[in-house]
Every structure is written in C-alpha cells, then in structure tokens.
Input
Amino acid sequence: MVRLAWICSVLVLAGCSAARDAFSAHAQVAGTAAGQTLTVDRLAHVVGHAQRIPIRPDVLTGVANAYLDYAVFATELGRGRDLHDSALVLAAEWPVAAQLKWERYHERLIVTRGKLTPAQADSAFQAGTVRLFQHILIRIPQSAVSTVEQEKEKQVTALLRRAAAQRGFNFADLARRYSEDPGSKTRGGYLPATPRGQFVPAFDSAAWTLPPGAMTAVVRTPFGFHIIRRPPLAEVRDSFRVDLENARTAQLDSLYLDSLAKQRQLKIESGALALVRQAVPQIVSARSDNRTLATYHGGTFQVRDLARWLLALDPNDVRGISTATDAQLNQFLKLLAQREMLLAEVDKAGVQLNPGDWRQLRAEHDSGVARLEGVLGVSPQLLKDSAATPAARVQLAMAHVDRYVDQAVTLGSAPFVPVPPFLAGALRQGQPWSLNEAGIARAVESAQAIRAADTTGRGAPATGTGLKRAPGPPPVAAESGGRPGPR
Output
C-alpha cells in the first residue's frame, strides 16, 4: 500500500507531456514516443486493474508519461545506442554535474578571499560575539503525561551529576551515548559556532551566560531537557576556526550572489508568480515553455529554466511550492535566477570537471541505467543475443516494458522505478513525443468501467494489447547533450 501511494505521487509529479497534440482523429491513441504508440485500451487496462491507483486524468497522464519514458529507453537500447557516452552522461546527471562545477569554481573564489589565521580565530573566540556550545538533549513527547516528564527530568539530572563529577571532560562521551538530538549526538553534542539569537529563547538565554568551560543546570525548552556546556578554547580551537570559516564563506557567497543580481539588475516579471504556480503540477510540459519569469542584463530566466531546477528538487519540496506565499515565491524565484546567473559565470570562467568528478558522474549514471535494465529485465547483450535485427530487438525490449508495467503498476508485485527525469529528458531530445488529451480522457472513462466491473480487485495482465509501432519510418536519434549548472 505504501509502495502504491508513492507510485501515485511520482506519477502525478510527471505531469503533462512535453507536447500535447490535439490529434482527436486518433481516437484510440493515448500517446506516442520513439516510434511506439500507447493505445487508449492499454492505458485504461494498466490503471483500471490497479485497484489502489486513483482514476483521474492527472494520474493517467502521469502513467502515460512514465510508460512512454520506458518506451524511449527500451527503444534506444534496441537500436543499439550507447547509453554511456559522455554527452548523455552530462545531460542525464545535470544536477550532480552542476554542483561539481560550482564546487570547482567556488574553490577559486575561496583562494582569492584568503583564510582566517589561528590568531584571528582565537581573537574571535575571546571577543565572544560568536560562541560554540555542546548540549545533551532528552526529548519529551508533546503528548507526554506528567509522570513521563518527571521520569525524563530524573534521567537528565542524573546525567548532569555525572558530567559535573568530571567537570565536563566526559561531556562528549555522555552526549554520544545518551543525547536524543540526532543532529549533534554523533559529534559529541557540539553545535556549530553561531552569534546570539540562533537558538530558542530558553536555550539561548541559558547558554550565553556561560563562561568557557562551564555548564548550565537542566534547561527546559519546547524540545525537552537540555544540559548545555561552553567548551574552553583549548578544547575546540580547530573546530571553532572551521566554523568561523564556514560562516564567513556562507556570508561572502550570499553577498556574491546579491552582487550579481544588483550588477545585472535582476527583475522579476509581473505575472511570474502565477506562471510558477501553473508550472509546478506540469513540470514536464513546462520544460518547453519559453515564457519569461525574470530578466537581467545578458539573459532571461524562463519557465523552462524553472522546470529544470524543479526536476532537480525532492518531489515533496516541489509540491510545497504551490502553497507558498507570494513573498516566499518571489524570493524562491530570485534565488533560482541568481543561480542561473552563477551558472553563466561558471561557464564564462571555463570551469571544467576533473577526472574525479567524471568518475562520480559516470558511476551515478551507470548505476541508474543498470537499475532500469535490471527492473525491465533487458540489456544490450541480451537483445543482441536474442534478436538479429534492430527492429526485432526493439520489439523484444518493448515486450519487457509491457511485462514490467503490468507487474509494477497494475499488480504492484515489482518496485516502481521511473526513468530519472534528466535521463528521460535527454533521451527524448529529437524523438517524436506526444500525448493526446482526448485519448487520455477516453482512457479515464474506460478505466472507470474496468474498475467497476473488476469485482475481484485483481485484474489479470493484458496480453497482446501493448505498445504498437506508430505508422511511418522510425525517427533518427538525435545527439544528446546538455548544459550543466548549479544544483
């Protein structure tokens, strides 16, 4: 049940296709891709017999997108395309490649800024405007009764006595063993060095009274009971300097991005926020939308650029964008446009990926391709050994797709593994690709009829109603490529 719920969320995210042709004359066609046709009957069967998948136009559109992505992947395998060439790797791993290129560029920026000396870090510790603390947290559930809270307080008081008995020297060991703060537990309870006001008031007020080496009594916050310690300089000299460096770097990075926006006069267009909200449920179709969201000297930030960034985010984060306030959306759009400008700066600087970066990209790409081949039960060698011609290999690969979709979507007996969005987008380049809204609507009606008639709740997989070749010659596979940029 959990798996099917997750499938639904992925399929809904897939949204609409890159192009929706109003080819109503093709009454039995739900979509086409790479010379293959998804029939209305086939789509209706896949969803109609999948009892836990809701029958809605957006869900069937998502199923069709996922189905046709498999079709493109399998067809390219059957035609003998090398799915591991450098151009395809770069396009399919855009988020990772972008992050790696930014890191190489960032290394150059850091060198020009210089580093803090040990003397400067020690001086900052003595000044006390930035401080580093340790803590042990014993959590209290929000619904806890008074007896549970009392028991927790006894537990933390006993820990305080143990820490005080050794004047805090065993504090890190106690934190690793007993603290219930997952973020600091493994680091011995150490929190990042910060200025005042970064913690909840009760924690902040108690912590900032401490001289170096001292501990608080038990402190109650909304999270639970804390013991807070301020380590002396000799104990945290190196980590304090690292924290200062990281905070300084983050501040300078922010100033750098803001300076780009100011120098290039970044401007969010009127109506842009409405376009963002429209794009979220239709990310795939938005990849071809050239409408402008923001302008700046030397370029524009369009809906298709937004879609590329959205596809790099966690689907749960993407869905939350629709409910953001106008102010939050405006800031989000500004940040993405700034990173698009940063992308241009990285390219302008001629930043290249190093051999280690390429090994990482290839490893991630190869792993993704291998996983798809595994769930589909198909590989270039299997196709070569089993069929003599490219056409026969494509036909065999599509039979594997048909069987897998029945298992993963209709029956739920196999894990649902969609084609990764950037790989799917790269493989679609130059390929004919269409969804038929009228066909999707007919498939919804047919699926509803199948569901109503399927009293057993377990429809058998269809045979002989899979993807069929579209009329006309096969398309010519285009060269794949892509321009990387920051994640």
About this structure: The first strand starts at residue 29 and ends at 33.
